[in-house]
Design brief:
By secondary structure, the chain is mostly helical. The chain has helices at 4-22, 30-36, 41-47, 51-67, 73-86, 88-98, 100-122, 131-156, 162-190. The protein has two domains: 1-48, Arc Repressor Mutant, subunit A, CATH 1.10.10; 53-160, no CATH class.
Length: 191
């Protein structure tokens, strides 16, 4: 059962989400949010520092926390995208309102940790020369790619077809990356 503080935070978050349907995030004030959920400004500040703090809370409470226990990267990524799709209109307005950089700050560390593990496990055991540099480079590259994909998907695209997403994901990791590695190994063997 939720405690009183969590209930109030959820009311405030819901008020912000309702308000984003009526006007631009930048024009929403603390008075607007407080009024929408029938509380005082002082009560608002007891729970959140500002409206950006609410957005951070929403991202973690509604998107990140529900999928945090999923170990498998493929399942985790699919659930991340589908969690965003469940209330995509709201998340789109919030992402546009707070800006891509703030959303990236929240998603990057979560994505980076999982991708680093995936890449470390995927590298051939014979790769020891500059292994850390290769892992760091690949982790940074794919983390940025997936964070940008999630943001662009949220802001610019329609809801994903689950089967098409899974097919494309498997192509990327199973076929494309394997092909690139084999081609690279063949190029080194020919030299």
């Amino acid at each position: 059962m939720l405690n009183h503080s969590s209930n109030t935070k959820e009311k405030i978050a819901q008020a912000l989400k309702i308000l984003t349907a009526r006007k631009s995030f930048h024009k929403i004030t603390i008075n607007d949010i407080s009024g929408e959920c029938g509380m005082t400004r002082e009560n608002f500040y007891y729970h959140f520092r500002d409206k950006y703090d609410i957005v951070n809370w929403i991202i973690f409470k509604e998107i990140i926390d529900p999928i945090s226990e999923i170990e498998d990267f493929e399942s985790w990524l699919k659930e991340l995208i589908f969690a965003i799709d469940k209330d995509r209109g709201v998340y789109k307005r919030l992402a546009i309102g707070v800006g891509k950089e703030m959303v990236k700050e929240n998603l990057y560390p979560l994505m980076e940790r999982r991708i680093r593990y995936l890449i470390d496990q995927s590298l051939d055991s014979s790769v020891w020369y500059m292994r850390k540099e290769k892992i760091d480079f690949a982790t940074s590259y794919f983390t940025n790619a997936f964070v940008e994909f999630a943001l662009n998907h949220t802001i610019d695209h329609e809801i994903l077809d689950p089967e098409l997403f899974e097919y494309n994901y498997k192509f990327l990791f199973s076929n494309f990356l394997t092909f690139v590695r084999i081609q690279k190994e063949n190029n080194f063997a020919q030299e």
